[in-house]
Amino acid sequence: MTKVDGVDVLLVEDNELDAEMTMRTLSRFDTPPVVKWARDGEEALEFLKSNPRPRLVLLDLKMPKVGGIEVLRELRATDRADTVPVVVLTSSTQDHDIGECYRLGANGFVVKPVNLGELERVVHRIGLFWLTVNTPPE
C-alpha cells in the first residue's frame, strides 16, 4: 500500500464496538492506514469539507444527525470527493437502501455480519481490496 499524507480511511460509524473492531482490523495491515472515525454523518461531512480526501470511506447508513444516504449524496455532489471509493457497511438489508446507495454512486454495499469474527474478516477483505489492490484516480 502506498502511504499518502492525511487520512486513508474515513470510517463513518455510530456503533462504538463496530468502529473499534474495524479500526483494530485495519491496524493489523503491513502498512496500517490512517483512520479517522466520524461518529455520525454530520461529523463526516465536516471532516470532508476541510480535509484532503480519504482513499476510502466506510459508511454506515443508520446514524443520528445525518444519515449515511445523505452523506453519500453530498459526497458525490462535490468535485473534491466525487471519485472517493465509498463502501456502505451497514446492518440494513432493505432493497430500497441497496438500490439508493448504488444509484447515488456507492462502490459497494456490504451487510454487516452479526458475528464480530465474521465482521472482522469482511472488514479485512474490504481493506485489502480498496487499500492494496485498487488503483485510485489521481
What does this structure look like?
Helix content is 42%, strand content 15%. It has 138 residues and is of the alpha/beta class. It has a single domain (9-133), classed as Rossmann fold, CATH 3.40.50.2300. The protein has a 5-stranded parallel sheet with strand order 2-1-3-4-5, with helices on both faces. α1 crosses α5 and α2 packs parallel to α3 (68-76). The protein is globular and about 35 Å long. The mean pLDDT is 92.
How far apart the termini lie comes to 15 Å
Relative strand content: 15-25%
CATH architecture: 3-Layer(aba) Sandwich
Number of helices: 5
- Principal-axes geometry comes out as globular
Largest sheet: 5 strands, parallel
Rg, rounded, reads 14 Å
In total, the number of strands is 5
pLDDT averaged residue by residue: 92
Strand order of the largest sheet: 2-1-3-4-5
Helix- and strand-based class?
alpha/beta
Helix content: 40-55%
CATH superfamily: Response regulator
Show unreliable segments.
Answer: none
CATH fold group: Rossmann fold
